[in-house]
Amino acid sequence: MAMEPRIVPRKEHRISRKQVSPNALRTLYRLHSRGFIAYLVGGCVRDLLLGRTPKDFDIGTNATPGQIKKLFHNCRLVGRRFRLAHLRFQDEIVEVSTFRRSADPSDVIEPDEANQGRRHVRHMKDANGMVLADNIFGTPEEDALRRDFTINALAYNIADASIVDYCTGLIDLKERLIRSIGDPRVRFTEDPVRMLRAVRFAASHGFDIEASAWDSIRELCSTISRASPSRLYEEIQKLFLLGFGCPTFALLEKSGLLAALFPDLAGWGREREGRFEVLEKNLAGIDELVRGGQGASVALLFAALFGPRLEEGALIHHREGIPRRQALDEVCAGFLKEISQSAQIPGRVGARLNSILALKTSLCRMPPRRPATLAGRPEFAETFTYLELAAGLKGEHRPVLEWWKAYLLENPAAGAVEPPAEEAARKKRRRRRKKPRRRRSAVVREEGTTHGQ
Ligand code: ATP
Ligand code: MG
Known about the structure:
By secondary structure, this protein is of the alpha+beta class. The chain has helices at residues 22-33, 43-49, 65-71, 113-116, 140-145, 169-175, 184-190, 193-205, 211-220, 229-240, 245-255, 257-261, 263-271, 275-291, 298-319, 324-339, 347-364, 371-375, 380-394, 398-410, 421-432, 438-447; strands at residues 6-8, 38-41, 58-61, 75-78, 84-89, 92-98, 100-101, 123-125, 131-134, 136-137, 155-157, 162-165, 177-178, 208-209. It has an eight-stranded mixed beta sheet. The chain has a two-stranded antiparallel ribbon with strand order 7-10. The longest helix has 22 residues, at 298-319. It is elongated, with a radius of gyration of 24 Å. The protein binds adenosine-5'-triphosphate and magnesium ion (MG). Residues 42-43, 55-56 line the site of magnesium ion. Magnesium ion (MG) binds at residues 42-43, 55-56.
């Protein structure tokens, strides 16, 4: 796989320093001035080349975590599996990681009782070839080659403002192709979440997935359940809450990943024509909210994605003689139990989903009983939005929406609900994090979004 990197000098590419966050830029300069290699790496280089605003700026360097810590007073080392540095600025965290390489066979230690608990295990794969720990320093080239896709392996070298391409990232970017680095079967086996990432990038960037990678996804999609439930929960949010949920859903369905992730939902959708369209329209509504800056809670997303199926299940149950609310609660509980086998959904999100669906039933009863109480419920805003999504589609809830809009106009204080619990909890956490608690945040980091890097 090793080859001479393609180096594109400053004059021949479109990334300007002005597009890079000042904090990241200062960090790069400081590392460079102390004699270290300092690159922008990963998704931010891809996004800058595409003319998009990167979500975050990641830096790769040959400085070790200890050296980085000495250079930056605002540095915290995080991650157990891989130590990396978080530089905390007022409104931004810049991630600085030491170049890593993937393991060669001599590094691989089969996990067993004895070494599971060993603190300095550097690299481990399980019996299926899935990487469990990844902690070996490497060269910039090795660091690029361990990444998932060629377009995610580009680097920007602060020393001369050139772009460094160790794979075929620049060509693939031009051709709009998601191509695995190395054999896609091996790479998806090492980390099945990469299949979801391929679909996410393809849907959000309008790229194609290169043929052998696509075939491998079709073949290996069922192995997605090997990924850790906490990571899958993180990834599900990225799939559906970044403004491209609708096209992502379609591609998940086509690839077989939807059935692997949510077998019940996929089976239900395939059973009758038009069902997936309902979900896609709901997701398009969520995409609009996200792109419009309004955002959507995870519970609202789940209502949009699973609500129609759960409501139908509850109705069938109810017709069998179970009281309406009990039927809904049972169906929700069954769903949450099933899904918890693959994705670790926090209890409060599951409870909120259940409340939204229950409140929807109360809101739809015309005229509603005790509207002031209903409008005062914490899940009122999300439920109202869920109703709007459904009404936009079939028009069936229009009269209900009209009724509630008129009511809120007459009683403006009634709908002034507090933000969803998750949002409030997140804000609280953010405030608290000013005084970080070391151990806990290391664990969060470990299980969090950047696990696979
Ligand atoms: P986004 O715009 O969603 O942040 P990203 O490409 O920056 O996209 P991150 O999750 O922030 O995605 O990861 C940063 C980089 O780390 C990626 O560009 C990629 O090079 C590498 N990476 C992330 N996850 C994996 C993985 N599972 N396997 C290999 N490399 C990964
Ligand atoms: Mg990123």
